[in-house]
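assembly run, all chains below
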Amino acid sequence: MDTPLQYKRPREIEERSFAIIREELGGREFPAQEAPIIYRAIHTSADFDYADSLAFSPGAVEHALAALRQGACIVTDTQMAKSGINRAALQQAGCEVFCFMADEDVAQEASRRGVTRAVASIDKAVRLNRPTLFAIGNAPTALIRLYEHITAGFSPALVIGVPVGFVNVVESKEWILSTQAPYIVARGRKGGSNIAAAICNALLYQITERAF
Amino acid sequence: MDTPLQYKRPREIEERSFAIIREELGGREFPAQEAPIIYRAIHTSADFDYADSLAFSPGAVEHALAALRQGACIVTDTQMAKSGINRAALQQAGCEVFCFMADEDVAQEASRRGVTRAVASIDKAVRLNRPTLFAIGNAPTALIRLYEHITAGFSPALVIGVPVGFVNVVESKEWILSTQAPYIVARGRKGGSNIAAAICNALLYQITERAF
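ok done. output:
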């Protein structure tokens, strides 16, 4: 069989991809700790909108990296986002990732209270009572519930607010943007589990040696 | 705590989302079996580019649905795409999904042959010797390897060719478009594991009662 393209090592492809992204951004400058996150969101979607839509609260990345260095956990609102977070990086950083969406107690609580499983998942995560980065790529109700906890005094290590969609999504992000919590939010409709995972990876890669 | 937005049931939100998508597409007509796939790709990304970029080979959806009805399996190139495929729909359809990327024998074969794990994964899937839908949202090398198998006589039940990225991606899709295999391809750089999973779900929902 012919080989129509030369196979290249994944790491080499990633480096060339980032060079192309930087080049197509035409020399735009981003804060040093935010740039890898912006680049990786574009890398995972081929969508340059993220260069404009990603909003960072002041010091959000520093705050999240400090928390991760101290073993903060990550909570996602989909199994898909959890699956997209680099296992080797998590392990090297000594961090854990959880998704409670399929948990039986979450299903029961959601049913009993008449809320989404995403809401019950967030409540379960808050009850962990440990430093937590929330990576929300799907459920606006998860983000809204987080907003409610924050206004009641809860302090997340970071809110990654990147649900995607057409109903409640834009509003849910605006609520997070109105808080004093550390956040990374994709303004507008776009986002997704892939973007949530990419942002987590971009953070983890800043505190690991990236030998993977 | 206040509730800034009324929580809505996920299914209700999805129906409203699809209505918005149809409205914003301004009455554009798509073939009946392709429309749900186009809508769902937009739904999962909030990116209307998919209305133009998704290319379907003649009869691809019918072919894939017939295969799924007969218990074809789905093979993905990421755990993330596998995670994004609706478990209840899979179960109702009597279908299985596999991702071989983390398999020890795949890692060994890739290392021995000096190819990517994605290539070795495709080879393993082809050796299954059963009707298979390939959902490729990440690795252009997987798609290129599939192209090689197809030109050597292999007949996939469907190739979902939606890797995302900047290196080899556009070319890998063009190779699939040049074949006679049943395909759904997102032309250009865009795609991803989320899009691959969304297309699988859109297919499964056409052959299930969607009571989930």
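Chain B has eleven helices and six strands.

The CA atoms of residues 188 and 211 of chain B lie 35 Å apart.

not gonna interpret more than that til we talk
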